[in-house]
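Let us work through a complete example step by step.
Step 1: write down the sequence.
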Amino acid sequence: MSADDAALETYMLAAMRLAAQADPAPGRLAADAMAALAMRLPGCVVAAPADLTAASGARAGGKPQMHRFAAGDTTLDVETTITEGRLEIAGQVSPPPAPDAYVEVRTPHVTKVRVPSADGQFAVAGLPPGWVSVAYHRPSDPPVVTRWLRVRA
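Step 2: predict the structure and record it as tokens.
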């Protein structure tokens, strides 16, 4: 581990203690945060949350949850749903992806890779609830990565 990585780990654990108002931070929280830290993609572009206007009457009842992220001309729409205690992700990349592009749906415990359809759609089912991030890998540009979302059962 480099000195920079050690400093980042120390900072992250201190921030978690403050956020959790507990010292030490709860074990599961610390383990998930360290796993997420290990999944960093050097040189990636972090997509910022973007406004998303829900269609009137679409999927009433607060489920599923829609999230939109944007970086430059790239938009990632991510829909999260809990079904029978497992996390399902459905999403779309815009503009439509190049043939060699792929999407990683990442949790601290498992990563699933999908090749989006010609119109940019992708889906993953059977993930554990909790923290999730989507990384869109483009053949000639740096990956675009969403922030981590916490999806509870």
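Step 3: interpret the result. The first strand starts at residue 45 and ends at 46.
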